[in-house]
Automatic annotation (TrEMBL):
Protein name in UniProt: Bet v I/Major latex protein domain-containing protein
Protein's organism: Arachis hypogaea
Family: Belongs to the MLP family.
Pfam families noted in UniProt: Bet_v_1
Domain Bet v I/Major latex protein: start-end pairs: 2-152
GO biological process, one term: defense response
InterPro entries assigned: Bet_v_I/MLP (IPR000916), Bet_v_I_allergen (IPR024949), MLP-like (IPR052006), START-like_dom_sf (IPR023393)
Classification via PANTHER family: POLYKETIDE CYCLASE/DEHYDRASE AND LIPID TRANSPORT SUPERFAMILY PROTEIN, POLYKETIDE CYCLASE_DEHYDRASE AND LIPID TRANSPORT SUPERFAMILY PROTEIN
Length: 152
């Protein structure tokens, strides 16, 4: 059984791609008020939520359990509407040596969009399961954000 792996999920959205992507690069700090599975988000290091290498503390609900972790943005590509995140420390480090999340927002011909989340991970041992609960977390959170933006 491999220690490294990749999982992906793609979610169809009604919000236009540019508007949806914009919330990730300008209003990331508001996710705790938008997504029911995000219970807390605080700046840990740095003073800007939307730049690479600022570190944030998060409390997420994954598989019905609170998960504490740190996150930092590694890269933002505005042209391709993509962001790369590194999740580390806290509860996530109990199971994974590496946990990176890549997201990309795609325009659709109907004026909506889709978002694809890809998780690249390295487990600390073969006894650790692949992070399927995080795929569900990202899928449901993407829908929460879409609903919020449609009301805005």
């Amino acid at each position: 059984m491999a220690l490294t792996g990749k999982l992906s999920v793609e979610v169809t959205l009604q919000t236009p791609a540019a508007k949806y992507f914009n919330i990730f690069i300008t209003q990331f700090h508001k996710f705790q008020n938008i997504c029911e599975r995000i219970h807390e988000a605080k700046m840990h290091e740095g003073d800007n939520w939307h730049v690479p290498h600022s570190v944030k503390n998060w409390t997420l609900i994954v598989d019905g359990k609170p998960i504490k972790l740190k996150e930092k943005i590694e890269a933002i590509d505005k042209e391709n509407k993509s962001v790369t995140y590194n999740f580390f420390d806290g509860d996530i480090s109990k199971n994974y040596k590496v946990f990176k999340v890549f997201l990309q927002v795609f325009e659709k011909s109907d004026g909506g969009a889709s978002i694809k989340f890809t998780i690249e991970y390295e487990k600390i041992s073969e006894n650790v399961e692949a992070p399927y609960g995080f795929l569900e977390f990202f899928e449901k959170s993407a829908k929460d954000i879409d609903s919020h933006l449609l009301k805005a």
